[in-house]
């Protein structure tokens, strides 16, 4: 609750009530929704704030999730929202831009100027993939250009594949991609000799030139153009992306991830790609569940203390 002094009305105090939830979850991906599911089933009053920009939105399907293999990412989120609604959890569309501690709870400011508040906060804001500056690469992202062979390797198995050496991780990624095809080409200048030896030992061809353009015909990737103007036919590309973690809210609170979903700030929890950039969807969902169980246990212990006001309860 905030009060505003209006001099024009003779110092009349006007109350603006911010509705208080047991838990505010910021981020409506797999981690956030699974956290909300566990908490709502534990009879906590939960609000999920979601900007609607999931990392895997460009992908047609997700994989490696038992019972959900091949499901479109958007469908998983839609089902998740329906499930948490059965237990009374709410979802609000909006971008969380600020957070502050107020009393024993937390107030989250949204881009539209509104605020929401909770006794506890779960941050599952994920990350963004930063692609190298190669002409046409971004347009194929999530289709025949990908980062994770575990997510997309099966779909392009036994095809002529390429790996861009735009990052030091590229050589290792090529070693992994070789698991799905015997025809793998590594593109990139500046490869050191130890990595070159490993690639050659795995039967991976090395082209000491950078890719400058992705070649597409009939909405399919058909190859790449190199810096010297030559073309190499390929059906799909794997590229190590830069990872920009959306940890601004955690930074505002000075919160760092510790264990079991907790952070260094009491009452603040985190899960998914915001704290584990390599987590796939199934892992992020599990982390959300674990953080929720940790949070609920902490709340139960707080509720058992003599002075519940200290915990904002």
From TrEMBL:
SUPFAM superfamilies: FAD/NAD(P)-binding domain. Keywords: Flavoprotein, Oxidoreductase. It comes from the Bacteria. It catalyses: [thioredoxin]-dithiol + NADP(+) = [thioredoxin]-disulfide + NADPH + H(+). Residues 21-288 form the FAD/NAD(P)-binding domain. InterPro entries: FAD/NAD-bd_sf, FAD/NAD-binding_dom, Ferredoxin-NADP_redctase_2. Pfam families: Pyr_redox_2 (PF07992). Gene3D superfamilies: FAD/NAD(P)-binding domain (3.50.50.60). The keyword Signal does not apply. The keyword Flavoprotein applies. This is NAD(P)/FAD-dependent oxidoreductase. It comes from Allokutzneria oryzae.
């Amino acid at each position: 609750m905030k009060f505003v002094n209006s001099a024009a009305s003779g110092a009349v105090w006007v109350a603006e009530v911010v509705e208080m939830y047991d838990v505010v979850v910021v981020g409506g991906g797999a981690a956030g929704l699974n956290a909300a599911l566990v908490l709502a089933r534990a009879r906590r009053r939960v609000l999920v704030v979601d900007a609607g920009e999931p990392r895997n939105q460009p992908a047609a399907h997700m994989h490696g999730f038992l019972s959900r293999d091949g499901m479109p990412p958007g469908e998983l989120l839609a089902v998740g929202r329906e499930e948490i609604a059965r237990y009374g959890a709410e979802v609000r569309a909006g971008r969380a831009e600020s957070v502050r501690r107020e009393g024993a709870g937390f107030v989250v400011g949204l881009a539209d100027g509104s605020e929401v508040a909770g006794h506890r906060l779960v941050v599952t804001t994920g990350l963004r993939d930063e692609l190298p500056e190669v002409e046409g690469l971004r347009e194929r992202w999530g289709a025949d250009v990908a980062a994770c062979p575990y997510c997309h390797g099966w779909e392009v198995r036994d095809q002529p594949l390429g790996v861009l050496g735009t990052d030091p991780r590229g050589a290792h990624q090529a070693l992994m991609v070789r698991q799905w095809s015997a025809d793998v080409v590594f593109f990139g200048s500046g490869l050191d000799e130890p990595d070159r030896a490993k690639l050659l030992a795995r039967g991976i061809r090395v082209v000491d030139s950078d890719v400058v353009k992705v070649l597409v015909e009939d909405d399919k990737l058909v190859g790449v153009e190199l810096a010297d103007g030559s073309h190499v036919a390929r059906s799909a590309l794997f590229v190590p992306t830069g990872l920009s973690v959306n940890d601004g809210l955690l930074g505002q609170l000075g919160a760092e991830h510790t264990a079991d979903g907790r952070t260094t700030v009491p009452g603040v929890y985190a899960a998914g790609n915001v704290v584990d950039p390599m987590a796939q969807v199934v892992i992020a969902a599990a982390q959300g569940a674990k953080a929720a169980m940790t949070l609920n246990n902490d709340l139960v212990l707080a509720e058992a203390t003599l002075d519940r006001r200290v915990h904002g309860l």
